[in-house]
Amino acid sequence: MDDGDVQRILVVMAHPDDVDFGAAGTVIGWTERGIEVVYAMVTDGDAGGFDDAITREEMAELRREEQRAAAKCAGVEDVRFLGYSDGRVEATLGLRRDIARVIRQVRPDRVVMPSPERNYERIYPSHPDHRAVGSAALDAVYPDARNPYAFPELLADEDLEAWTAREVWIVGGPTPNHYVDVTANFDRKLAALKSHASQTAHMGDGLEEMLRGWMGFSATSGGLPEGSLAEVFQVVDTA
């Protein structure tokens, strides 16, 4: 689906910073073209960080604020948190309903999500929370959000009509088929990630070095010109 046919995009991720590691450069390109992008974070990231002096409640509040700041770097104003416990996410009917609710609220043309599959080439995207959110989000796209008889309470109690998202972009999976050149947006992607100071400050200059190495490899794999930096996705037609 061409971006010219897209008005709204919903990004569903497990933790604050997931979208910025995996897709912020691409999101920046979308918002610059006038596409509305909404973030939905399933957890508040309360199991993250490195400071034992910070309570889990304080960490959750901090990471929500970090994600809002990172979103602004990418041109995103609407950031929603579903309140699930970090490290304990399962692809339950309840999570499917909660994501279907957001899909019906936002009514996106495209939904971005983590892969429900384990990636043995790069294990880090395959965090259990990521896989659970990917599975639930894909089920929420098809069939839940589009089926008026799935979770009928969404219509009866909340007046949320069924909605069909026409395309899914999967992040971190083992079989990517789409490479986005985000070289021009790298500095803003890096700024977004630095907004997650509780997770990235300890890396110093190593964060930029890691990103350039990882994204440069992705660009080479996608056949992009030498020196390019890329983000990769598996694009699935769900119309």
TrEMBL record:
<dbReference type="GO" id="GO:0016811">
    <property type="term" value="F:hydrolase activity, acting on carbon-nitrogen (but not peptide) bonds, in linear amides"/>
</dbReference>
<dbReference type="InterPro" id="IPR003737">
    <property type="entry name" value="GlcNAc_PI_deacetylase-related"/>
</dbReference>
<dbReference type="Pfam" id="PF02585">
    <property type="entry name" value="PIG-L"/>
</dbReference>
<protein>
    <submittedName>
        <fullName>PIG-L family deacetylase</fullName>
    </submittedName>
</protein>
<keyword id="KW-0862">Zinc</keyword>
<dbReference type="GO" id="GO:0016137">
    <property type="term" value="P:glycoside metabolic process"/>
</dbReference>
<dbReference type="InterPro" id="IPR024078">
    <property type="entry name" value="LmbE-like_dom_sf"/>
</dbReference>
